[in-house]
What we know:
Blueprint: H1 2-11, E1 36-37, E2 40-41, H2 72-78, E3 82-84, E4 90-94, H3 109-122, H4 135-145, E5 150-154, H5 155-161, H6 163-171, H7 173-192, E6 199-203, E7 210-211, E8 224-234, E9 238-248, E10 254-258, E11 279-281, E12 287-297, E13 311-317, E14 329-342, E15 350-365, H8 378-389, H9 394-401, H10 410-421, E16 426-428, E17 434-436, E18 442-446, H11 452-462, E19 466-470, H12 476-479, E20 481-485, E21 492-496, H13 498-501, E22 506-510, H14 517-521, H15 523-528, E23 531-536, E24 539-544, E25 548-553, H16 566-570, H17 574-577, E26 582-586, H18 592-611, H19 627-640, E27 644-645, H20 647-662, H21 678-694, E28 699-700, H22 702-719, H23 731-734, H24 739-757, E29 765-766, H25 767-777, H26 784-796, E30 800-803, E31 808-811
Parallel strand pairs: 5-6, 7-8, 13-15, 18-25, 18-26, 19-22, 22-25, 27-28
Antiparallel strand pairs: 1-2, 3-4, 8-12, 8-14, 9-10, 9-11, 9-12, 12-13, 14-15, 16-17, 20-21, 23-24, 29-31, 30-31
Amino acid sequence: MASEERSVNSMTPDSGDSNVDDRAIVPETPGRYSTTSGGDTDAVDPTPAPITPSAPSTPTRSPRHIDLPRGTLNEVHDARTPMTDDDGTSTGGTSNRPKRVIWGTDVNVDECFDKLTEFLKNYKPGEGYSDTAAYYSRLLDKAHDVEESVINVDLQHLLEHEPALYTMLVNFPTEIIGIFDLAIQSFYREKFDEDKPMEVRTFNLREKEMYSLRELDPTLINQVIGIRGMVVRCSQVVPDLYRGFYRCIRCGHTEAVDVDRGLLVEPVVCVNCDSRSSFEMIHNRGMFNDKQMIKIQEAPESIPQGETPSTVTVIAYESLVDSVKPGDRVDITGIFRAVPMRISQRQRTVRNVFRTYLDLIHVKVMMPKAEGDVLEDATSRDERMAEVARSENIYERLAASIAPSIYGMDDVKKGVLLQLFGGSQKDFSDKGWGRIRSEINVLLVGDPGTSKSQILRYVHRLAPRGIYTSGSGSSAVGLTAYVARDADSGELVLESGALVLSDQGICCVDEFDKMSDYTRSILHEAMEQQTISVAKAGIIATLNARTSLLAAANPVDSRYDPKKTVVDNIQLPPTLLSRFDLIFLILDQVDIESDKRLAKHIVSLFYDSINNASGNETSYAGTGIGGQKLVEYIAYAREKVKPRLSDAASDKLLELYVAMRKRGGEGAGGVRTVSATPRNLESLVRMSEARAKLELREVVEVSDVDEAHRLMVSAIAQVATDPTTGLLDIDLLNAGQSAHQRGKARDLANVLWTTLSNWESGGDVRLNMLLQKTNEDASVRIKETEMKKALKLLEDEEKIVFTSSRLAIRRLA
Length: 813
C-alpha cells in the first residue's frame, strides 16, 4: 500500500499553491477513495471525510509543477493491467489494486489517463487537415526536433473529440491538467524512447468560459476560465521556493521537504540521532521556481461608460515568466484561485474576505502573428503574405483600406499608412552613434467635423499595439510613468503611462491642442530620443517609448485662418511641431461639386448599411483589404521586413534634398528662407523605407523615394508656406517665425533705434509714447506686438534696457 500511495501522489498535480483544493487526489483512506475489486466498481462514498483547510498564505508554487520519478506511469498502468498466471497467461480477471477517482466525484483517474492518451495519439482535425499522422503526434515531433518541452493543446479539439473530458478539465483543472501532463510524457516516452518532462498548456476555451474582469465571482473559484485584457504592469522575476533543504546541526543528517499548499513544514525529530528541533535550513541547497506577478486591466474599449477599469492579478511560473510585457493585449487561460489574507504579517488570524488571482496556464498575445494554425510553418505564412504583396496596385488598395468610410483625403490616408508600417530600426550603439528613430510621427490639423478623430480611432484598431487617449484628459504622468505603492509588497513601483505602453506601436492623441504646456513638454524626449527619463521617489530609470505619435488638433478659433501661420493657428511650440514628420491640413472648404460627392458618399453609407443588414460588406470596402487581413499584413511587415537603401535611392535622396533647399527665396532684408532641414531628410529616409516595407521589399527603390518626397512636399507646402510672401519657409515650424518676419523685425528695430537716438528728453521712454511717435513718422501702422519683438532684438544687443516693469525703456550709452 505504501508504494500505491507514492504512485497516487506522484500523479497528483502539485497543490503547493496557497489555494485549498477540496477535490485534490489523496492517498487511499476510508471515505476519500472508492475502491473496486475484481473489476466491479462500487459507488462513490456519499459522505467524504471533512476538509482540513490549509494555513493561510500568499500564492506560491505553481500547480503545474509535478515530481515525476521514473516508474510513475508504469505504476498507473499496473493498476489497470489484467491479472496473469506465473507463465504469463491471462486469468480473465483484473488486478485487485483499487481504481482511483477524484474525491467527491465519479471521475476515474485511470480512465481519464487512457482517454487523454488516446486523444493525443489519434486526434485529427476536420476539414483542411490532410496529414496522415495525428495532429498532436506531429506537434510532438516538432517539439522533439526543436527540443521544446511545452505542447499547446486547443481545447476546441478536446471538446470535439471528447466533450466529457473538456467538462472535467474545466471543473477539475488541478487534477486533470496534471494527468494530461503525465499522458503527454507517456506518449513522448513511447514515441522517442527517452524521458523528458513535458507540459501541456490548454487554450481556446468556449465563449461560455470566457469572462470579463467584472464577471469573476466566487462560483468560478478553482475552475479554468479565460479573460481578455491589457497588461499594465509586470513585476520583477522572484525565486519561489518549492523544496526546502534541512540539515541536522548535531549529526549532519539532511532532509528535503516539499512545499505543501503554501506551507513548508520543518522536520521536528531527526531520524538519525533522535534530536528534537535540531534542523537548520540550507538556503543555497533549496529548489526554486521563477515567479512573476502580472497585472491585467480591462481593455479601454470594453470599459462601461462612467466606470473605472477593473484589474486582476495573474501569477506566472517558470517558462511563462516574461512572456508578456506592459501594453500587450492578451488572451489569458488560467485557474481562478482565492487565498485568505492575514490581518498582519505577525498574526495567523485571517480576514473573512479572500484575495483572488489567476494561476496562469496559457497566454496568447492578441497579435496577428499569434493567429492561425500552430502547425503552419514559416514558409506557408511567407507565401500568403507575399501573395498579398504581389497583388495589383497594393499601395492604392492598402490606402483605400484605411478608414474606408471616410471620403477622399487620399494623401492623409497614405501618410498614416506609411506610419503604420514604419521605417527600419537602426542601432549604431557599437559605433557610438546611438539609436536612430525609425518611427514616423503624424499631426492632423484642421477644422471641426473633418473626420480627424475617426482616422485616429481606425488606426488605433489597426495598430498591432498602442493606446488611444485625449489631450484634455491626459496628464504628464499619465503619458509617461507614475509611482504607486504595490498592494502586495508595499514597495514603491513604477507604473507605465500611455507612451510606454505603446512601445513599438502607435499612440493616438486626440485634442492635442487642449494639452497643458507642461504635458506637451514631456513629449519632446519621447518623440525624438524615443525614451522617457524618470526620477521620482528614489526611482531613477530610462524607459523605452519607441512609439509613433498620431495626433489631431483643432485651430484656436475653431476655424483655420489661412492668413495666419500654423503656429499661430494651433499655438503649439515650434520645437514640438518640428518633430512631426508629416503635418496635414484638413480644411472644410466650400466646393459645390466636392460637397455633392461627399454628401452622396455619406448617404450611401446609411443606405448600404440598411440594405446589407444581413452582414454583407458595404460597397465602399470592395477595393480594400479586409480588416483582420490588413492587421496581420501590417504586423508581418513590421516584424519580418527591414528595407535598406540602394545606391540609386541614396543618390535620389541627396538630389531631392538639395532641390528642396534651393526652393527657399529671398525674404525681407535679404534674408534667405530655409525650405528643408536635415530632420526633413531623415523623415524622407523613414518614409521611403516604409513605402518599400509596404510591398515586403528588402531594398528601397527610386520610386519609393519619389512617393515619400511627394507626400512630404504636399504636407510642407500646406503648413510651411509664409502667408505674407507665399514662399516656402520651414522656419515657420522650426522657429515659429518666417525669414520675412525676422527681416521685418530687424528693419523695425533699426527704425526704433533711430527714433530713440533722436528723442528730445533724456531718461526713460514710455512704450506707449514710443509707439505713438513711431506711427506718426511711419507710413504703415505698427502693432504693439511687432514693436515689442523689435525692442527684444535691441535688448539682446544691449542697446536698451527695460524699466518700470517693462512698461518703459532706457537707452544705454
